[in-house]
Design brief:
Number of helices: 25
Strand order of the largest sheet: 4-3-5-7-6
Largest sheet: 5 strands, mixed
Number of strands: 7
Distance between the termini: 71 Å
Length: 524
């Protein structure tokens, strides 16, 4: 890292361009974070942070004014499985950072989540820079910023974005450790990030094993040092597991065997609702084999897909080229593996997947890095006119994606590419506002156009009450009886908008596609 910093200092163009990208990203976050709505499970992560922060402070006998709170009594059905399948490090971090504000609000919570996601851009930049050059790295920064499912989730997604962050950190630290001088400090940094990966999601066990394999291969097959290969891979694995156990409360209280409980819980996560795919409803785990790969394909910008495909061919060519150094060959194999191993495992094991492909959002990391190699391939083309034409097409598509981002704001995660006809083509065929973030806009419209402060309204809302009730005024009372409701807030998921009665008075739309309906219930 010190070498990178010294190199950047000598290259004013690089550091200027990087700062422009970085400051632009942070500025956009600061200007827009209040626009994003609260989604269905955010309170779970806030309360998890509250519970474990207080537990840690009390354990070390640090005075605090946090109110007593029992996470497992509050969520009796979900509490244990939630902890087994999700890490709590970021819950604690975000909850602690909330003390910077005078009072809690989901808007401030969204700001912190987005800012915590920013290092992902830096880790991917550094990785691509190490493997290519700074111009390609800068382009990868841009690609990540225009990746709909990632950027559209950084404000209110409480777990999947953090998984992208920790994987990007692990991949970056492994790249520098593997290709550069292997110091003890670099080894501990890599072990920490691997431990953090395992703490966040047990599926990252495959990344853990791939990296251990890489260390073993480098020492034994490349450097011909068997004892060193065993020694280094063992130490890295040992300290990674130590960090994972220290960071994860379930592993801390259930050493080693807790890993198996976490695997079981991850595969059988209790989600029983249907998923809309290709116009049909499918219940997990009985999803079509192509559910995950197709959703990734149709929700990724066309230019990124094009570059990703070229990048795959580039990496495969380098792997099978004799001139490629052994350690570089493994890095290329590693990048392809972290992309395709989870997809293959998903097809074979059929875990519960829902909410589009957000549980596999961490695949954003290899997608962007591999696409960066596609960009490298294009700028290396010797045919000038072909290079210029391709660059213009890529630029045009990225500008179109940016324009689409503006039109979809603040629901970038409902983006679909032109291969399915955009959002209009995906309507009633695939999930749109599966997070329910559009309820904020609906309730705020109701408050400014219909809500009479002298009246009391009974409101029925589909989805999690948190998404809508967070923005209710005092004269709005939630009712679970749809027949008694004065107004009904509903969304298109599971076609609930068609099942609820009433006259539509307002629709939250993007690109002409309805996301949320407000219906007036006609009594009598």
């Amino acid at each position: 890292m010190e070498y990178i910093w010294l190199t950047m200092k000598k290259n004013k163009a690089e550091i200027t361009f990087f700062l422009m990208l970085f400051l632009s990203l942070v500025s956009i976050i600061l200007l827009t974070y209040k626009d994003y709505g609260t989604i269905w499970n955010e309170d779970v992560f806030v309360n998890s942070g509250h519970y474990y922060t207080r537990l840690i402070l009390n354990y070390f006998k640090i005075k605090n004014n946090l109110a007593p709170f029992d996470f497992f009594k509050t969520y009796p059905a979900l509490g244990l499985v939630h902890i087994q399948t999700h890490g709590v490090s970021f819950d604690i971090l975000l909850f602690s950072l909330m003390s910077l504000f005078k009072k809690f609000s989901f808007e401030n919570y969204h700001l912190l989540k987005a800012l915590v996601a920013v290092p992902t851009f830096i880790f991917i930049y550094l990785t691509v820079r190490k493997l290519t050059n700074w111009k390609v790295a800068a382009f990868s920064f841009l690609l990540l910023g225009l990746f709909p499912d990632f950027y559209g989730n950084i404000f209110n997604n409480a777990i999947d974005v953090q998984s992208v962050l920790v994987l990007s950190a692990a991949v970056c630290s492994f790249t520098y450790f593997f290709l550069g001088k292997q110091t003890v400090f670099k080894g501990f940094v890599l072990a920490f990030f691997l431990g953090l990966c395992l703490e966040q999601r047990i599926i990252f066990l495959y990344v853990f094993l791939l990296i251990l394999l890489g260390i073993f291969v480098r020492e034994w097959l490349i450097k011909k040092k068997f004892v060193s290969a065993f020694y280094k891979s063992f130490l890295l694995g040992f300290f990674s597991l130590i960090f994972a156990h220290l960071l994860h409360p379930y592993l801390f209280t259930h050493p080693i065997f807790g890993l198996f409980d976490m695997m079981k819980a991850a595969r059988l996560y209790p989600f029983t609702a249907a998923n809309l795919f290709e116009g049909k409803m499918y219940f997990p785990p009985n999803l079509p084999w192509n559910y995950l790969p197709k959703l990734i394909f149709i929700t990724t910008p066309e230019a990124t897909i094009f570059l990703f495909i070229i990048g795959n061919f580039y990496l495969l060519k380098q792997i099978f080229t004799k001139k490629t150094l052994g350690k570089n060959r493994f890095i290329f194999f590693f990048l392809l593996s972290i992309m395709y191993v989870p997809i293959i495992l998903t097809i074979l094991l059929k875990p519960n997947i829902y909410d589009s492909w957000r549980q596999f959002l961490f695949l954003t990391v290899p997608i962007i890095i591999i696409a960066a190699f596609g960009f490298l391939t294009i700028i290396k083309l010797k045919t000038y006119w072909l290079k210029v034409c391709l660059m213009l097409l890529i630029a045009a598509d990225l500008l179109f994606t940016a324009y689409t981002f503006i039109k979809l704001h603040p629901y970038q995660y409902v983006y679909y590419n032109l291969f399915v006809g955009g959002l209009k083509g995906a309507y009633r065929q695939y999930e749109t506002d599966y997070l329910g973030a559009g309820y904020k806009e609906a309730v705020l419209w109701f408050n400014s156009h219909i809500n009479d402060p002298t009246k009391t309204y009974l409101i029925y809302a589909e989805g999690d009450r948190l998404s809508s009730q967070t923005y209710f005024k005092k004269n709005m009372v939630f009712t679970s009886d749809v027949a008694k409701a004065d107004y009904i807030f509903t969304f298109t998921r599971w076609n609930l908008d068609r099942q609820n009665p009433g006259k539509t008075v307002y629709t939250v739309e993007r690109e002409g596609v309805p996301l949320i309906f407000i219906k007036q219930n006609i009594h009598g």
